Amino acid sequence: MREIRRRIYGVYCIALFLPTAVSVLILNLFVPGVRNRRAVARASSRIFLKAAGIPFQVYGLERLPKAPCVVVANHASYLDGLVVAAALPPDFAFVIKKEMVRVPVASILLKRLGAEFVERFDSHKGAADTRRVLKTAAKGQSIVFFPEGTFTEHRTIGKFHSGAFATAARNKMPVVAVALHGTRDAMPTGTLLMRRKPIRVEVLAIFQSTEHAPLTAGEVRQLARSRIAEAVGESLAT
């Protein structure tokens, strides 16, 4: 009986999400200004989580720098992008795997929100995408990365790719470590059926190389990864 209720709830969430996503896309075809469009997406994400009955909390937003920054978060579920969009102010561009370009509705919406798509498997194309992200950051745009690049069923924090930290170092931007709690349980790997589990977003710490405390991009990467792993209570994958 519990499994039947779980499946009914999962189907309900899908039925709730699809018209919400289409409505956001249609609305954002006409809303001027990328920040305004992100604000629409943020509000809609929060409405979706509330309608789905998901307890949702955000802590530490006051720690976000006033200046442009690079946010890095752990990646555990397909829900992560929606959750971060619901949590953060509408000032951030998301760096997203290029496979999403092939998802019709999602790709149009993400482009309208100023997302940057990055190739993961072709090094030549990936380098060109990285240069484009660097240019975006150089213009003063704050950016969100999921530096693990993907997620698995294992409750570990995967290795962080260097792109986020190289972007921050090149543009002298602070790196903000953000922990996502509960998204793995709310939508486990291998299914699109949600579960009614609490989700929490926590802004943890800011890392930046300064004259008095010099840090390399690699050191910032390790510090951010360790801090996130500690916060979510997961080990570091080897």
Looking at this protein, list some descriptive labels.
238 residues, two-stranded parallel sheet, 9 strands
Task: Tell me what you see in this structure.
- The protein has a single domain (2-236), classed as Glycerol-3-phosphate (1)-acyltransferase, CATH 3.40.1130.
- By secondary structure, it is an alpha/beta fold.
- Helix 4 links the parallel strand 3 and strand 4.
- The protein contains 8 helices and 9 strands.
- It has helices at residues 2-28, 34-51, 80-87, 104-112, 123-138, 163-170, 183-186, 217-232; strands at 56-59, 70-73, 92-97, 116-118, 142-145, 156-157, 175-181, 199-207, 235-236.
The dominant shape is globular
Helix content: 40-55%
Supply the CATH architecture. 3-Layer(aba) Sandwich
Number of helices: 8
Main β sheet profile: 7 strands, mixed
Identify the CATH class.
Answer: Alpha Beta
Low-confidence stretches: none
Q: Kindly estimate the percentage of residues that lie in beta strands according to DSSP.
A: 15-25%
Radius of gyration: 18 Å
CATH level 3 topology: Glycerol-3-phosphate (1)-acyltransferase
Global mean pLDDT: 92
| Order of secondary-structure elements | HHEEHEHEHEEHEHEHE
Number of strands: 9
Termini separation: 39 Å
The structure class reads alpha/beta
- Strand arrangement within the widest β-sheet reads 1-8-7-2-5-3-4
Please, how many domains?
1
Superfamily (CATH H level) name? Glycerol-3-phosphate (1)-acyltransferase
